[in-house]
Design goal:
By secondary structure, the protein is mainly α. It is built from 15 helices and four strands. Helix 2 packs across helix 7 and helix 13 packs antiparallel against helix 14. It is rod-shaped and about 120 Å long.
């Protein structure tokens, strides 16, 4: 016979009756009804699976660590055959053993046992004399036992599994939401860094950044999935808004198609630039490029002379087979290094020679970009999109612009040129021609003023 007594068990009563047994409560009756539904564990279920399901569901159901610990301890006294049909998982550890194993006092142990009954985890099967004891036969089957009946735990297996699965799904949803929040925050930070690098400093960018960081701080304190989902959606909306704003500000501006100029145009400011040209049949000749055959003296030339235009001086003719300098108002022209330095004098301090070749121009532009606020990465993109020499020409053009010409910064303006170059919409030759015209007309005005004085 295997017995363990609990002489103090008879003291667990209200003192109102002579039986010495514990007082029944509605919670105890409810738990007993749950335990009566136990008819053995389902197929492929084991006591270990019941205990695992209970532990997984316990935090969601509000069961504290002490409850989990005592249930785990009681399970250690059961045997597999106790969980089969026709049997009950009864255990009978003494109160003294319970107090020692769990580190509890007498009152704490009594309070904990009653709590286990009230939350529907165990029922108490009391002996007539209030003692806990039991015995097994030679096959290990329980013959007689009084103590803790764990049947309610087995009967609630499906509930525990459902609660645990719901908690797992909720944790996964929270993990996914927080991952989305991290992606949105980092994406917004990336957009804001790019905007700052390009010189976009209007209050909208600051507002987006402040609102996003406030949302991130608030989300760290929230545990409700619905509230987190709402906050994440707000954060993602701001990230999209910032990205769309950046794309709009850096999108290439479509260039207007050339118009036919009337013989008496109504817009005088357009007269010097409005001409009709034939389609370019020689794209190689009409590309702004650093020719390896450029003369050190900076002479600009082309391989063939275009037809003379009415109202313009005829092209000077050389000997047979000699190259002829272009004198027409074409929109794309060959450009020498010396002329580029004259057009963009800010290049000159960075040149190591007075007769620079195109590699010298490229090196000087790489130094000049620091003054214009052009990052190394943007310079690399420009070299890939346009070629090193044309990227240097574009940077030189930006350096020749007056400070009031830029709506943001010189670096932002240069970024716009790179974007247009990637889209195939940058006409660098026309830009250079416009710079030539500005300098020529400005110099002519100075000469006339000096002559009048």
């Amino acid at each position: 016979m295997q017995t363990e007594s609990a002489p103090e068990a008879h003291q667990e009563h209200s003192g109102r009756g002579p039986s010495g047994l514990r007082r029944l409560s509605l919670a105890m009756l409810t738990t007993e009804r749950i335990g009566e539904k136990f008819t053995g564990l389902p197929d492929k279920s084991t006591p270990g699976r019941v205990l695992a399901a209970f532990k997984a569901a316990a935090p969601t159901l509000g069961f504290g660590p002490r409850v989990i610990h005592v249930i785990d301890w009681l399970f250690s006294f059961t045997q597999p055959q106790d969980w089969t049909a026709g049997h009950k998982p009864l255990v009978w550890p003494s109160a003294h053993l319970q107090q020692q194993a769990l580190g509890l006092g007498v009152t704490q142990a009594k309070t904990l046992n009653r709590h286990l009954v009230e939350i529907g985890l165990v029922t108490m099967k009391d002996s007539p004399n209030g003692k806990r004891y039991g015995k097994r036969d030679a096959q290990g089957q329980i013959v007689e036992a009084y103590g803790f009946d764990l049947s309610p735990l087995a009967a609630r297996l499906a509930e525990f599994q459902a609660v645990a699965e719901h908690a797992r799904a909720e944790r996964e949803a929270l993990r996914h939401l927080r991952r989305r929040a991290t992606i949105a925050r980092k994406g917004l930070d990336q957009v804001l860094e790019t905007a700052a690098e390009l010189g976009f400093a209007d209050p909208v960018w600051r507002r987006l950044g402040e609102e996003a960081h406030a949302l991130c701080r608030a989300l760290k304190k929230v545990a409700n999935p619905d509230e987190i989902a709402f906050g994440v959606a707000s954060l993602e909306r701001r990230q999209r808004e910032a990205r769309e704003r950046l794309e709009f500000l850096t999108s290439p501006v479509p260039e207007a198609a050339p118009e036919t100029v009337d013989s008496d145009p109504t817009r005088p400011e357009n007269r010097p630039h409005q001409y009709n040209y034939k389609s370019n049949l020689h794209p190689y000749q009409d590309t702004v490029m650093a020719s390896e055959g450029c003369k050190a003296q900076g002479e600009a030339g082309v391989q063939t002379a275009p037809p003379a235009r009415p109202g313009l001086p005829p092209s000077p003719q050389g000997g047979h087979g000699a190259k002829t300098a272009r004198q027409d108002a074409g929109t794309v022209l060959r450009l020498s290094t010396d002329e580029l330095v004259r057009l963009a004098p800010r290049l000159k301090p960075y040149l190591a020679t007075s007769s620079p070749a195109w590699p010298d121009i490229v090196d000087a532009a790489d130094w000049l970009r620091h003054d214009l606020g052009v990052s190394k990465s943007l310079w690399g993109e420009a070299c890939l999109a346009m070629g090193r020499e044309q990227a240097a020409i574009a940077l030189a053009v930006v350096s020749a612009k007056p400070a009031g010409h830029f709506t943001s910064t010189p670096g932002g303006y240069f970024n716009g040129m790179v974007v247009r170059a990637k889209a195939g919409g940058l006409n660098l030759a026309r830009t250079v021609w416009g710079l030539r015209h500005i300098q020529q007309t400005g110099q002519s005005g100075k000469d006339r003023a000096r002559h009048m004085n």
